Amino acid sequence: MDLQAFLITFREALEALLIVGIITTYLNRTDYGKWKKWVWLGVFFGIASSYLVALLFQVVFTGFGTMGGQNYLKIGIMLVSCGLLTHMVMFMAKQSVDFKGKVESKIGVIITSGSILNMVVHSYLVVLREGVETVFFFAAISGGDIQKAIESWGALLGLLAAVVVSVLFFRGTRKVPLGLFFRIVSMFLLIISAGLFVQAIGILQDLGLMGTLYRTSGGEIGEIYNLTWLMPEHPLDYEQYLRDAGQAPLLSGQIGIFFKAFLGYTQNPSLEEFLLYWLYYAGVLALLIREKQKHFRQAAATAPVNI
Protein backbone atom coordinates (compact mmCIF):
# COMPACT_ATOMS: atom_id res chain seq x y z
CA MET A 1 0.00 0.00 0.00
CA ASP A 2 2.92 2.37 0.70
CA LEU A 3 3.98 2.43 -2.96
CA GLN A 4 0.41 3.02 -4.11
CA ALA A 5 -0.04 5.79 -1.54
CA PHE A 6 3.25 7.33 -2.68
CA LEU A 7 2.27 7.42 -6.35
CA ILE A 8 -1.24 8.72 -5.69
CA THR A 9 -0.08 11.40 -3.24
CA PHE A 10 2.79 12.40 -5.51
CA ARG A 11 0.54 12.82 -8.52
CA GLU A 12 -2.28 14.67 -6.73
CA ALA A 13 -0.01 16.90 -4.66
CA LEU A 14 2.23 17.67 -7.64
CA GLU A 15 -0.66 18.94 -9.74
CA ALA A 16 -2.06 21.05 -6.89
CA LEU A 17 1.38 22.53 -6.08
CA LEU A 18 2.14 23.26 -9.72
CA ILE A 19 -1.18 25.01 -10.27
CA VAL A 20 -0.89 27.06 -7.06
CA GLY A 21 2.75 27.85 -7.86
CA ILE A 22 1.89 28.96 -11.38
CA ILE A 23 -0.90 31.17 -10.00
CA THR A 24 1.36 32.91 -7.46
CA THR A 25 4.21 33.28 -9.97
CA TYR A 26 1.86 34.76 -12.55
CA LEU A 27 0.46 37.20 -9.98
CA ASN A 28 3.99 38.38 -9.10
CA ARG A 29 4.88 38.79 -12.75
CA THR A 30 1.77 40.84 -13.51
CA ASP A 31 2.09 43.14 -10.47
CA TYR A 32 -0.84 41.51 -8.70
CA GLY A 33 1.29 40.06 -5.89
CA LYS A 34 -1.09 41.46 -3.28
CA TRP A 35 -3.62 38.82 -4.37
CA LYS A 36 -1.39 35.94 -3.27
CA LYS A 37 -2.78 35.97 0.26
CA TRP A 38 -6.22 35.18 -1.17
CA VAL A 39 -4.75 32.27 -3.11
CA TRP A 40 -3.26 30.80 0.08
CA LEU A 41 -6.55 31.38 1.89
CA GLY A 42 -8.26 29.26 -0.73
CA VAL A 43 -5.53 26.62 -0.36
CA PHE A 44 -6.06 26.51 3.42
CA PHE A 45 -9.80 26.03 3.09
CA GLY A 46 -9.23 23.38 0.41
CA ILE A 47 -6.94 21.33 2.68
CA ALA A 48 -9.36 21.66 5.62
CA SER A 49 -12.31 20.59 3.47
CA SER A 50 -10.37 17.60 2.10
CA TYR A 51 -9.66 16.43 5.66
CA LEU A 52 -13.36 16.74 6.52
CA VAL A 53 -14.22 14.71 3.42
CA ALA A 54 -11.78 12.01 4.63
CA LEU A 55 -13.46 11.90 8.05
CA LEU A 56 -16.94 11.76 6.51
CA PHE A 57 -15.91 9.05 4.08
CA GLN A 58 -14.40 6.96 6.89
CA VAL A 59 -17.63 7.25 8.91
CA VAL A 60 -19.70 6.18 5.90
CA PHE A 61 -17.43 3.23 5.15
CA THR A 62 -17.46 2.08 8.79
CA GLY A 63 -21.25 2.39 8.83
CA PHE A 64 -21.55 0.14 5.80
CA GLY A 65 -19.22 -2.33 7.51
CA THR A 66 -21.48 -2.60 10.57
CA MET A 67 -24.45 -3.18 8.28
CA GLY A 68 -22.70 -5.99 6.42
CA GLY A 69 -22.53 -4.05 3.16
CA GLN A 70 -18.83 -3.21 3.23
CA ASN A 71 -17.98 -5.55 0.36
CA TYR A 72 -20.54 -3.88 -1.89
CA LEU A 73 -19.20 -0.44 -1.04
CA LYS A 74 -15.66 -1.71 -1.60
CA ILE A 75 -16.58 -2.99 -5.07
CA GLY A 76 -18.17 0.34 -5.93
CA ILE A 77 -15.15 2.30 -4.71
CA MET A 78 -12.74 0.09 -6.67
CA LEU A 79 -14.69 0.37 -9.92
CA VAL A 80 -15.23 4.13 -9.60
CA SER A 81 -11.55 4.61 -8.66
CA CYS A 82 -10.57 2.60 -11.72
CA GLY A 83 -12.70 4.88 -13.88
CA LEU A 84 -11.30 8.03 -12.28
CA LEU A 85 -7.70 6.87 -12.58
CA THR A 86 -8.26 5.98 -16.24
CA HIS A 87 -9.77 9.40 -16.87
CA MET A 88 -6.81 10.96 -15.02
CA VAL A 89 -4.34 9.16 -17.28
CA MET A 90 -6.18 10.37 -20.38
CA PHE A 91 -6.35 13.90 -18.96
CA MET A 92 -2.63 13.96 -18.17
CA ALA A 93 -1.85 12.79 -21.71
CA LYS A 94 -3.65 15.90 -23.00
CA GLN A 95 -2.47 18.45 -20.43
CA SER A 96 1.23 17.63 -20.38
CA VAL A 97 1.71 19.44 -23.69
CA ASP A 98 1.22 23.02 -22.36
CA PHE A 99 0.19 22.67 -18.74
CA LYS A 100 1.71 25.98 -17.61
CA GLY A 101 0.22 28.03 -20.44
CA LYS A 102 -3.30 26.73 -19.85
CA VAL A 103 -3.22 27.56 -16.14
CA GLU A 104 -1.89 31.07 -16.80
CA SER A 105 -4.65 31.64 -19.33
CA LYS A 106 -7.33 30.79 -16.74
CA ILE A 107 -5.75 33.07 -14.13
CA GLY A 108 -5.59 35.89 -16.66
CA VAL A 109 -9.35 35.63 -17.12
CA ILE A 110 -9.90 35.71 -13.33
CA ILE A 111 -7.68 38.79 -12.92
CA THR A 112 -9.49 40.54 -15.76
CA SER A 113 -12.80 40.05 -13.94
CA GLY A 114 -11.23 41.75 -10.89
CA SER A 115 -12.90 39.47 -8.33
CA ILE A 116 -10.92 38.44 -5.24
CA LEU A 117 -13.66 35.94 -4.44
CA ASN A 118 -13.04 34.22 -7.77
CA MET A 119 -9.35 33.85 -6.88
CA VAL A 120 -10.17 32.30 -3.50
CA VAL A 121 -12.77 29.96 -5.02
CA HIS A 122 -10.45 28.88 -7.83
CA SER A 123 -7.58 28.06 -5.44
CA TYR A 124 -10.01 26.31 -3.09
CA LEU A 125 -11.47 24.13 -5.85
CA VAL A 126 -8.02 23.21 -7.19
CA VAL A 127 -6.90 21.86 -3.80
CA LEU A 128 -10.29 20.35 -2.92
CA ARG A 129 -10.46 18.43 -6.20
CA GLU A 130 -7.04 16.86 -5.66
CA GLY A 131 -7.83 16.22 -1.98
CA VAL A 132 -11.14 14.48 -2.66
CA GLU A 133 -9.56 12.32 -5.37
CA THR A 134 -6.77 11.36 -2.95
CA VAL A 135 -9.30 10.39 -0.25
CA PHE A 136 -11.26 8.28 -2.73
CA PHE A 137 -8.18 6.48 -4.03
CA PHE A 138 -6.91 5.91 -0.49
CA ALA A 139 -10.23 4.26 0.37
CA ALA A 140 -9.81 1.94 -2.62
CA ILE A 141 -6.21 0.84 -1.96
CA SER A 142 -6.65 0.45 1.81
CA GLY A 143 -9.98 -1.38 1.82
CA GLY A 144 -11.64 1.56 3.56
CA ASP A 145 -8.98 2.34 6.18
CA ILE A 146 -8.33 5.86 4.91
CA GLN A 147 -6.52 6.96 8.07
CA LYS A 148 -3.99 4.16 7.65
CA ALA A 149 -3.21 5.29 4.09
CA ILE A 150 -2.94 8.95 5.13
CA GLU A 151 -0.48 8.08 7.92
CA SER A 152 1.62 5.74 5.76
CA TRP A 153 5.20 6.46 4.78
CA GLY A 154 4.15 6.32 1.15
CA ALA A 155 1.79 9.29 1.54
CA LEU A 156 4.42 11.36 3.36
CA LEU A 157 7.19 10.58 0.86
CA GLY A 158 4.83 11.25 -2.05
CA LEU A 159 4.05 14.69 -0.64
CA LEU A 160 7.74 15.46 -0.06
CA ALA A 161 8.64 14.31 -3.58
CA ALA A 162 5.93 16.55 -5.05
CA VAL A 163 7.28 19.53 -3.07
CA VAL A 164 10.85 18.87 -4.29
CA VAL A 165 9.79 18.59 -7.93
CA SER A 166 7.70 21.77 -7.65
CA VAL A 167 10.56 23.72 -6.03
CA LEU A 168 13.00 22.61 -8.73
CA PHE A 169 10.50 23.55 -11.42
CA PHE A 170 9.85 27.06 -10.14
CA ARG A 171 13.40 27.87 -9.08
CA GLY A 172 14.58 27.01 -12.55
CA THR A 173 17.97 25.77 -11.34
CA ARG A 174 17.19 22.51 -13.11
CA LYS A 175 14.70 21.93 -15.86
CA VAL A 176 12.12 19.38 -14.78
CA PRO A 177 10.54 17.78 -17.85
CA LEU A 178 6.96 17.68 -16.64
CA GLY A 179 5.83 15.82 -19.72
CA LEU A 180 8.18 12.95 -18.85
CA PHE A 181 7.07 13.03 -15.20
CA PHE A 182 3.42 12.88 -16.20
CA ARG A 183 4.04 9.96 -18.55
CA ILE A 184 5.93 7.95 -15.91
CA VAL A 185 3.37 8.65 -13.19
CA SER A 186 0.55 7.86 -15.64
CA MET A 187 2.07 4.46 -16.34
CA PHE A 188 2.16 3.54 -12.65
CA LEU A 189 -1.34 4.92 -12.05
CA LEU A 190 -2.55 2.77 -14.94
CA ILE A 191 -1.06 -0.29 -13.25
CA ILE A 192 -2.83 0.60 -9.98
CA SER A 193 -6.09 1.12 -11.87
CA ALA A 194 -5.86 -2.28 -13.56
CA GLY A 195 -5.14 -3.87 -10.18
CA LEU A 196 -8.23 -2.29 -8.61
CA PHE A 197 -10.32 -3.41 -11.57
CA VAL A 198 -9.29 -7.06 -11.39
CA GLN A 199 -9.69 -7.12 -7.59
CA ALA A 200 -13.25 -5.85 -7.99
CA ILE A 201 -13.93 -8.64 -10.51
CA GLY A 202 -12.58 -11.20 -8.04
CA ILE A 203 -14.80 -9.93 -5.21
CA LEU A 204 -17.84 -9.93 -7.51
CA GLN A 205 -17.20 -13.58 -8.37
CA ASP A 206 -16.55 -14.53 -4.73
CA LEU A 207 -19.91 -13.01 -3.75
CA GLY A 208 -21.70 -14.79 -6.60
CA LEU A 209 -22.65 -11.49 -8.26
CA MET A 210 -20.73 -12.36 -11.41
CA GLY A 211 -20.69 -15.70 -13.16
CA THR A 212 -17.94 -17.43 -15.12
CA LEU A 213 -17.53 -19.25 -18.41
CA TYR A 214 -15.19 -21.81 -16.88
CA ARG A 215 -16.14 -24.01 -13.93
CA THR A 216 -14.62 -27.15 -12.47
CA SER A 217 -16.37 -30.50 -12.49
CA GLY A 218 -17.55 -29.68 -8.96
CA GLY A 219 -19.29 -26.52 -10.16
CA GLU A 220 -16.79 -24.07 -8.64
CA ILE A 221 -15.21 -21.16 -10.50
CA GLY A 222 -12.22 -22.62 -12.33
CA GLU A 223 -8.68 -21.26 -12.24
CA ILE A 224 -6.71 -21.07 -15.48
CA TYR A 225 -3.41 -21.53 -13.63
CA ASN A 226 -2.13 -21.67 -10.06
CA LEU A 227 1.11 -19.98 -9.01
CA THR A 228 0.86 -20.59 -5.27
CA TRP A 229 4.02 -22.73 -5.50
CA LEU A 230 5.86 -19.70 -6.90
CA MET A 231 4.38 -16.72 -5.03
CA PRO A 232 1.27 -16.97 -2.84
CA GLU A 233 -0.76 -13.77 -2.76
CA HIS A 234 -1.00 -13.68 1.06
CA PRO A 235 1.01 -14.98 4.06
CA LEU A 236 -1.96 -17.20 4.98
CA ASP A 237 -1.78 -18.85 1.56
CA TYR A 238 1.94 -19.33 2.13
CA GLU A 239 1.32 -21.15 5.40
CA GLN A 240 -1.44 -23.27 3.88
CA TYR A 241 0.74 -24.34 0.94
CA LEU A 242 3.62 -25.15 3.30
CA ARG A 243 1.29 -27.31 5.38
CA ASP A 244 -0.34 -29.12 2.46
CA ALA A 245 2.67 -29.56 0.16
CA GLY A 246 5.32 -30.07 2.81
CA GLN A 247 7.59 -27.50 1.19
CA ALA A 248 7.68 -23.73 1.07
CA PRO A 249 6.82 -21.67 -2.03
CA LEU A 250 9.74 -20.01 -3.79
CA LEU A 251 8.71 -16.48 -2.77
CA SER A 252 7.21 -15.18 0.45
CA GLY A 253 3.55 -14.32 0.89
CA GLN A 254 4.68 -10.82 1.93
CA ILE A 255 5.98 -10.30 -1.61
CA GLY A 256 2.74 -11.67 -3.01
CA ILE A 257 0.57 -9.35 -0.94
CA PHE A 258 2.64 -6.40 -2.21
CA PHE A 259 2.14 -7.37 -5.86
CA LYS A 260 -1.54 -8.04 -5.23
CA ALA A 261 -2.01 -4.53 -3.86
CA PHE A 262 0.12 -2.87 -6.53
CA LEU A 263 -0.51 -4.95 -9.66
CA GLY A 264 -3.70 -6.81 -8.79
CA TYR A 265 -1.71 -10.06 -8.81
CA THR A 266 -3.75 -13.22 -8.30
CA GLN A 267 -2.15 -16.61 -7.69
CA ASN A 268 -5.06 -18.50 -9.27
CA PRO A 269 -7.11 -16.15 -11.50
CA SER A 270 -10.42 -17.05 -13.06
CA LEU A 271 -10.86 -16.80 -16.81
CA GLU A 272 -12.67 -13.47 -16.42
CA GLU A 273 -9.99 -11.98 -14.13
CA PHE A 274 -7.24 -12.90 -16.60
CA LEU A 275 -9.03 -11.75 -19.75
CA LEU A 276 -10.51 -8.52 -18.35
CA TYR A 277 -7.18 -7.52 -16.82
CA TRP A 278 -5.42 -7.59 -20.17
CA LEU A 279 -8.42 -6.26 -22.10
CA TYR A 280 -8.35 -3.23 -19.80
CA TYR A 281 -4.75 -2.47 -20.78
CA ALA A 282 -5.55 -3.00 -24.47
CA GLY A 283 -8.55 -0.67 -24.27
CA VAL A 284 -6.65 2.16 -22.54
CA LEU A 285 -3.73 1.77 -24.95
CA ALA A 286 -6.14 2.06 -27.89
CA LEU A 287 -7.63 5.24 -26.39
CA LEU A 288 -4.18 6.77 -25.83
CA ILE A 289 -3.11 5.98 -29.41
CA ARG A 290 -6.32 7.51 -30.75
CA GLU A 291 -5.77 10.63 -28.63
CA LYS A 292 -2.20 10.95 -29.86
CA GLN A 293 -3.29 10.61 -33.49
CA LYS A 294 -5.98 13.24 -32.89
CA HIS A 295 -3.34 15.61 -31.49
CA PHE A 296 -1.11 15.08 -34.54
CA ARG A 297 -4.03 15.75 -36.91
CA GLN A 298 -4.91 18.97 -35.07
CA ALA A 299 -1.27 20.09 -35.10
CA ALA A 300 -1.02 19.39 -38.84
CA ALA A 301 -4.25 21.29 -39.53
CA THR A 302 -3.05 24.40 -37.68
CA ALA A 303 0.52 24.33 -38.99
CA PRO A 304 1.43 27.16 -41.41
CA VAL A 305 1.61 26.24 -45.06
CA ASN A 306 4.83 27.16 -46.88
CA ILE A 307 4.31 28.40 -50.41
TrEMBL record:
Its subcellular locations are: Membrane
Q: Membrane topology per the record?
A: Multi-pass membrane protein
Task: State the InterPro entries in the record.
Answer: FTR1/Fip1/EfeU
TM region positions: 6-27, 39-60, 72-93, 105-127, 152-170, 182-204, 274-289
- One of this protein's Pfam families, by short name? FTR1
The family classification in the record reads: Belongs to the oxidase-dependent Fe transporter (OFeT) (TC 9.A.10.1) family.
Keyword annotations for this protein?
Membrane, Transmembrane, Transmembrane helix
**Under which name does UniProt file this protein?**
FTR1 family protein
Which species?
Paenibacillus gansuensis
